[in-house]
């Protein structure tokens, strides 16, 4: 009985990628909760964390919609992981990806899909 009780209390998180939306499903205390995040576009940004002169450069992947913004991923070491996830999600969500302030040649560039 205790084993069954622990199994039903255990929380589970899962993300579903659907065209135009990310769906987050979580289970806890025996109930399934579903939250749908509509996506209008994805955006990769770069900013300096900390002081103006020093500090780490932070690359972030943002979900943008009319309902607001949601940060999906952040990295301070390498922008390629954030950019790769952005391309992968943009392709599967069928939304545009905006690469903002990533360096020379990347300012305000927009991609639609990887195979387009």
Explain this structure.
The chain has 116 residues and is α+β, with helices and mostly antiparallel strands. Helix content is 20%, strand content 47%. The chain is built from two helices and eight strands; from the N terminus they run αββββββαββ. It has helices at residues 2-9, 79-93; strands spanning 12-18, 21-28, 31-38, 41-48, 57-65, 68-75, 97-99, 109-111. Strands 6-5-4-7-8 form a five-stranded mixed sheet, with helices on one face. A three-stranded antiparallel sheet has the order 1-2-3. A hairpin with an 8-residue loop joins strand 4 and strand 5 (57-65). The longest helix is centred in the last third of the chain and has 15 residues, at 79-93.
SSE arrangement:
Blueprint: H1 2-9, E1 12-18, E2 21-28, E3 31-38, E4 41-48, E5 57-65, E6 68-75, H2 79-93, E7 97-99, E8 109-111
Parallel strand pairs: 4-7
Antiparallel strand pairs: 1-2, 2-3, 4-5, 5-6, 7-8
Uncertain parts: 104-116
Physical arrangement of strands within the biggest beta sheet:
6-5-4-7-8
Q: Given the structure, what is the number of helices?
A: 2
Question: Major sheet: size, sense and barrel closure?
Answer: 5 strands, mixed
| Percent helix | 10-25%
Mean pLDDT: 77
Q: Find the structural class using helix and strand composition.
A: alpha+beta
N-to-C SSE string, H for helix and E for strand: HEEEEEEHEE
Cα-atom radius of gyration: 18 Å
Oligomer designation: single chain
Secondary structure tally: strands: 8
Q: State which percent range the strand residues make up.
A: over 45%
> What is the end-to-end distance?
55 Å
| Approximate shape | globular
